[in-house]
Design a protein that fits this description.
By secondary structure, this protein is mainly beta. The radius of gyration is 22 Å and the shape is globular. The strands form 2 sheets. Strands 1, 3, 5, 8, 10 and 11 form a 6-stranded antiparallel β-sheet that branches. It has a 5-stranded antiparallel β-sheet with strand order 2-4-9-6-7, with no helix packed on it. 11% of the residues lie in helices and 40% in strands. The chain has one domain: Sandwich (Jelly Rolls), CATH 2.60.120.
Length: 228
């Protein structure tokens, strides 16, 4: 009788232990971490930002995601970055993180997850320009495969949002440019991305980016502190 009771208790403990283990390692229990890059003039450059100072090359990085930035000659290029992502205040503190397009170059931010099985998601970015132009934003994998993108109008002192979500396992490249590219600027702010830790890799989400009017410069924008 005693041996039967001990066997039953042993089986029950085994079931409880398996249930506990399944609960603690389940990828569903892991939380996403969202970061907003606000390009504040006090923290975006290696020192206090002045117009056309270069951005920090790793601005926006967090534990789990390394962010780099630079200039490319064309969309989807596998060439190494060159410097050229500038901080710039176009419209009375409306935006920062400005990028001069006079050469027709392409700006890029690269988001690389420390864990290659983790998903990194593009959420949104706010943009404006110094004149009526057409802006293009594309998402590429880290191996330069096109995933999604779109083009839309951007006007002087008008806040336009480029919206995802687009999710990619391991990370992604956000590349952007403006047309026409002579003596025009494309200003970025509130660039938001999310790290979604996962045990099982998820496929990249194919999508088009959406351009939406968000407000006018004259109304003012309350800056949000960068998430950490």
């Amino acid at each position: 009788m005693f041996q039967q009771v001990r066997r039953v208790l042993g089986l029950a403990l085994t079931v409880l232990a398996a249930s506990f283990a399944a609960t603690t390692i389940s990828p569903r229990s892991l939380q996403a971490q969202t970061t907003t890059m606000t390009f504040d003039g006090s923290n975006s450059c290696n020192s206090a930002c002045n117009p056309f100072d270069l951005l920090k090359t790793n601005y926006g990085s967090i534990a789990g995601v390394t962010v780099t930035n630079g200039i490319l000659a064309s969309f989807g290029s596998a060439a190494a970055f060159s410097d050229g992502m500038h901080w710039y205040d176009l419209s009375g503190n409306l935006f920062a993180g400005g990028f001069t397009i006079g050469s027709g170059a392409i700006g890029a931010f690269v988001f690389t997850a420390t864990d290659p099985t983790a998903t990194v998601r593009f959420d949104k970015v706010d943009i404006t320009s110094n004149a009526l132009n057409t802006a293009t934003f594309n998402i590429y994998s880290l191996s330069n495969s096109f995933i999604g993108g779109g083009s839309g109008p951007v006007n002087a002192n008008v806040l336009t949002s480029v919206l995802g979500p687009i999710s990619v396992v391991g990370g992604f490249k956000l590349e952007f440019g403006i047309s026409p590219g002579t003596l025009t600027t494309l200003e970025l702010d509130n660039l938001q991305y999310t790290l979604v830790s996962s045990v099982t890799p998820e496929p990249a989400t194919m999508s088009l980016l959406a351009f939406g009017l968000a407000g006018m410069a004259g109304a003012g924008i309350r800056r949000r502190k960068r998430s950490r």
